[in-house]
Specification:
The chain is about 15% helix and about 50% strand. The chain is mainly β and about 400 residues long. It has a six-stranded mixed beta sheet. Strands 2, 8, 10, 11, 13 and 14 form a six-stranded mixed beta sheet that branches. Strands 9, 12, 15, 17, 18 and 20 form a six-stranded mixed beta sheet that branches.
Length: about 400
């Protein structure tokens, strides 16, 4: 039996060796080396405190992933996915250009032994900025309109300040912080709550996730009261320069809407601005006044107009001589059965003074010259001619006429 086992022993050993070699060759041919492109491996950023402790903030680019090319045995490589790899960017090793090297390794140490990993991109650039803190006022913004005949007197927010902290570029983008209150159809004061809205210079809403802030809910109080329209009356004080007068006062607006409690509104009928000083003025005067300074206690403006623009026209006084005839003079109080005859010449002079434009347009008929003969009998009498008083025009002489009264 033993002799049979050892018979042709050398041939048996050779056959075994050949079989092993063939197996190794076949195995290697079946499991040859290959490469694969793997995309979208998410990058983990570590040691961010190395930046933040310098009072700076950082922002990683959107879609922070990396692609790699791996090389290894086919049976291993062909089944690999991005979950089999770990990408790390150490922020403590950031370069002066803010570039951070990305190291990619296989999650499994077994896979890592037979794998070669090549990064498509070696690093990523991180945005680094100074960290700033800013305190901003909160403005209440009302939506829609209150009920007819009512208006908003005041809008308050509590708190009225908000502290924002974050990257300098993000914080400096904030132009205004507002909270919204819906007052549609409201006829009484209301209280509500709202979240802050951050706006840039163009009024566009800013993504608040780019910074942090200390107040997330704001209490809003809106005072709503009845309204009333009041006329504005402007008066001057003082006297212009000699031979100059106030010719006109122009102002806008001529009325404003105010708001207040009903009993307070009932007490006021107009707004009088009576302190426009024209003392020694010889030319037009322009000024503006704050309307609220002339409102009584308990009354406030119900509209955006805050000032009234006033222009006082000041012009020189000129003189003019008018010719007047007997036919221009009216005789009042005549009795039937009498005749009335002027005994003087048929033309007289009337001296007037006033503004040039007014005098240029002045007609004798407008002055309505008149004498009153009521109660006078037969005889010759001297009468003083009276004239109608006109704005900005003064008659400077006294005109007397003689009249003879006879029976018909």
């Amino acid at each position: 039996m033993k002799n049979k086992f050892f018979a042709h022993f050398e041939l048996k050993v050779l056959s075994l060796v050949i079989a092993i070699v063939v197996w190794i060759i076949v195995a290697n041919v079946d499991d040859y080396k290959t490469t694969k492109h793997i995309e979208g491996i998410e990058i983990e950023f570590v040691n961010g405190s190395a930046i933040t402790k310098k009072n700076k903030v950082y922002e990683v680019p959107e879609g922070t992933t990396i692609d790699v090319v791996v090389k290894g045995r086919r049976k291993i490589v062909e089944n690999l996915t991005r979950e089999d790899f770990h990408a790390v960017a150490d922020l403590s090793k950031m370069s002066i250009t803010n570039a951070v090297k990305v190291d990619v390794s296989a999650v499994s140490s077994y896979i890592a032994r037979d794998l070669t990993i090549s990064n498509i991109t070696d690093s990523v650039v991180v945005a680094v900025e100074d960290k700033v803190k800013k305190q901003l006022p909160i403005t209440v913004r009302t939506l829609s309109d209150v009920a007819s005949g009512y208006a908003i007197r005041s809008k308050t927010a509590a708190p009225n300040l908000i502290t924002v902290e974050g990257a300098e570029s993000a914080v400096n983008m904030i132009e205004e912080v507002v909270v919204d209150a819906n007052v549609a159809g409201a006829s009484r004061s209301l209280t509500t709550a709202s979240t802050p809205i951050f706006l840039d210079k163009s009024g566009t809403v800013i993504d608040a996730s780019k910074f942090t802030y200390d107040v997330h809910e704001i209490e809003i109080s809106v005072e709503i009261l009845k309204t009333k329209e009041l006329a504005i009356n402007v008066e001057t004080t003082g006297v212009p320069k000699n031979n100059y007068v106030v010719s006109a006062i122009d102002y806008q607006p001529t009325s404003v809407m105010v708001v207040g409690e009903a009993e307070e509104l009932a007490k006021v009928h107009e707004i009088v601005i009576d302190d426009i000083d024209v003392a020694d003025a010889a030319e037009a005067l322009e000024t503006s006044v704050v309307i609220a300074d002339y409102l009584p206690n308990g009354i406030s403006l119900a509209e955006d107009t805050q000032e009234i623009m006033i222009k006082v026209m000041i012009e020189p006084v000129v003189e003019k001589t008018l010719a007047i005839t007997n036919e221009d003079i009216k005789i009042s109080g005549k009795n039937n059965g009498y005749t009335y005859t002027f005994k003087d010449g048929g033309t007289y002079t009337l001296n007037v003074r006033g503004l040039k434009d007014d005098l240029d347009n002045l007609k004798i008929l407008s002055l309505a010259p008149d004498i009153d003969v009521t109660g006078y009998g037969v005889g010759t009498y001297t009468f003083t001619v009276t004239t109608k008083e006109l704005d900005q025009i003064e008659v400077t002489n006294t005109l007397k006429v003689r009249l003879e009264i006879e029976r018909e």
